[in-house]
Specification:
The chain is of the alpha+beta class. The chain is built from 15 helices and 20 strands. The strands form 4 sheets. Strands 3-2-1-6-5-4 form a 6-stranded antiparallel beta sheet, sandwiched between helices.
Length: 570
């Protein structure tokens, strides 16, 4: 047997077809490889399809475009790298006057010899793009049965019209690429679904841990807020954060995770009126994201914001997110997160932030209830102790005053306490407890003119920030070091009889419960004063009665003697 090694040339008709078939096969293999390699990365697959379609049709660059709501998403790949250094994903309005919109809407192919000279207003945007990118000839074909609607386009930088065979080749490629696109989309959707499930599980686990923390520490708000903030920062990929609690007209930093290079701001206060972006989150009732917080506050000339985003003269550029803590319609404060660089938070973290904000609000409400009960029990015990002293020493008002001052010092830690009684037109100090040795409290409360106290509105005044006040309030800060104070009038039968005075060096130093307790102590002092007055009046009356009885007894003895010895004058 002999073998025939003679070469049999392919006919002139079959040769071009074979070349085209091999090109199409290579393009499809490239796409399938991209599907395998890309996994759940849909962008990578679409960039590959755009590139292989461009090579298949002898173009300079191409794209895959698809509907996404009211937008068209374009995955462009310039294989010459002449105007696009790397594949790029962009979006355009779906209602734009472009060939992209036309193909997606009507599912028909379009071919243009020179896009840069189009005069049809229906394609005005396509002409503008062609002029900007020095593009001439172009062809657009729909991908059949794609959902959402999808198309493929190829472009040349010279006027070199695409032939009917090239259009047919691109259409055939689009048919074959349809399965690859569908597979890639499905893989991406499954991956996204799995990611969402993992994130939901992570959030659920974190929520359970926080709720256990709330249950284990019902009155320890700091511990709970630290836990909430830590979990929120972990899940959202934040480097630092703060929880601010509203106390009257200020926000107080109650918990923090400090970013490197930043000083601690725990315990600092911000006036509500200057809370800036935190107020924005409150008013929106939804999370607010700031890509570059340093630039944001600088552009708005926000001195308060700048104070939290500067180290020396340098503005630190960080990404920022905040969400309001709400209980029904009451604004409790804010939860803030930071990154120590410009790395914007993904808006998908909005729901995560809201979840942690809800937990923080629950913790605050729970702590309030627990601490309110605790405070009520403490007040009840304090009242009982003082009433017991009043009962055992009804005439010794000074002993009661000392007990009130000691009890106030115990229940209002760090406060300096003074009790003054009226002496004519002056109120003079009778008892004081210096809670802060740096305050010259005995001098500060030595005496007050009654006329000054009479000008006070109401029977109790709380001045939380004396440094920002004026007149008498400002002088109290400058002369004696008070930053906040509570003044409670002692009023008996509509008459001012004394004054209970509490002061601290820090602004906003008294809680609502402590202010209420001051009122209770003042009422007890009035009871002691009235009780002592009544006791002393009773003592005087008893003495008068005793003296009268002694006189009456003596007179009776004399009369008896006279009656029994009528003639015995001696």
């Amino acid at each position: 047997m002999t073998s025939d090694n003679t070469h049999h040339p392919v006919s002139d008709t079959l040769a071009p077809q074979l070349v085209v078939a091999r090109r199409r096969e290579a393009a499809l293999v490239g796409v399938l490889r991209a599907v395998v390699d890309g996994g759940s990365d849909l962008d990578k697959v679409l960039f590959a399809i755009a590139g292989h379609a461009t090579e298949l049709c002898g173009g300079a660059w191409g794209n895959v475009f698809s509907e996404d709501g009211d937008k068209i998403v374009v995955h462009a790949n310039d294989i010459t790298r002449s105007w696009l250094p790397e594949p790029t994903r962009t979006t355009r309005p779906r209602n734009a006057a472009s060939a992209l919109a036309y193909v997606l809407r009507d599912r028909q192919a379009l071919r243009f010899d020179d896009l840069s000279t189009l005069d049809d207003p229906m394609f005005a945007d396509s002409r503008a793009t062609a002029v900007a990118r020095d593009t001439k000839s172009g062809v657009y074909v729909p991908v059949p049965n794609a959902s959402p609607a999808t198309g493929v386009a190829v472009f040349r930088t010279a006027i070199d019209p695409f032939t009917d065979d090239e259009v047919a080749l691109l259409e055939a490629f689009a048919v074959q690429a349809a399965n690859a696109i569908a597979s890639a989309r499905m893989t991406a959707e499954v991956a996204a679904h799995n990611t969402a499930l993992a994130e939901a599980l992570e959030l659920q686990t974190a929520t359970s841990e926080v709720l256990r923390l709330i249950s284990a520490n019902p009155g320890d708000l700091r511990t709970v807020l630290d836990g909430v903030l830590s979990k929120a920062a972990e899940i959202c990929g934040a480097d630092g954060g703060q929880v601010l609690i509203r106390r009257g007209e200020v926000l107080v930093f109650e918990s923090e995770i400090t970013i490197p290079d930043y000083i601690s701001i725990l315990g600092r206060t911000v006036p509500v009126s200057e809370a800036g972006v935190n107020l924005k989150a409150r008013d929106r009732r939804s999370p607010v994201f700031v890509d570059d917080f340093g630039a944001f506050v600088s552009s708005r000339n926000d001195p308060v914001g700048m104070s939290f985003s500067q180290v020396g003269d340098e503005v630190l550029h960080t990404s920022f997110a905040t969400v309001a803590l709400m209980q029904d319609d009451e604004w409790l404060g804010n939860l803030n997160l930071n990154r120590n660089r410009v790395d914007p938070f993904d808006p998908k973290f909005g729901s995560v932030l809201q979840s942690f904000a809800d937990q923080a609000a629950i913790a605050i409400a729970n702590a309030r209830l627990f601490n309110d009960l605790d405070a009520a029990l403490e007040r009840e015990q304090a009242v009982s102790d003082i009433l017991r002293i009043i009962g055992t020493a009804p005439g010794d008002a000074h002993a009661v005053f000392e007990a009130i001052a000691e009890s106030a010092a115990q229940h209002v830690p760090g406060a300096s306490i003074g009790l003054l009684l009226r002496d004519g037109d002056t109120l003079r100090n009778v008892v004081n407890v210096a809670g802060d040795a740096s305050i010259d409290f005995s001098r500060a409360t030595a005496e007050f003119p009654v006329a000054l106290i009479d000008r006070m509105d109401g029977e109790l005044v709380y001045e939380p920030d004396l440094a920002s006040g004026s007149g008498v309030a400002r002088r109290a800060y400058e002369d004696f070091g008070f930053a906040s104070r509570v003044i409670a009038k002692l009023v008996n039968r509509s008459e001012l009889v004394g004054l209970l005075f509490l002061a601290k060096r820090e602004a906003f130093g008294f809680s609502t419960e402590q202010v209420a307790l001051a009122r209770s102590f003042a009422d007890q002092a009035v009871v002691a004063i009235e009780n002592a007055r009544l006791f002393n009046e009773l003592e005087e009356r008893n003495q008068e009665v005793s003296q009268a009885l002694d006189q009456q007894t003596a007179i009776g003895d004399v009369l008896r003697m006279i009656s029994t010895n009528p003639g015995d004058v001696r």
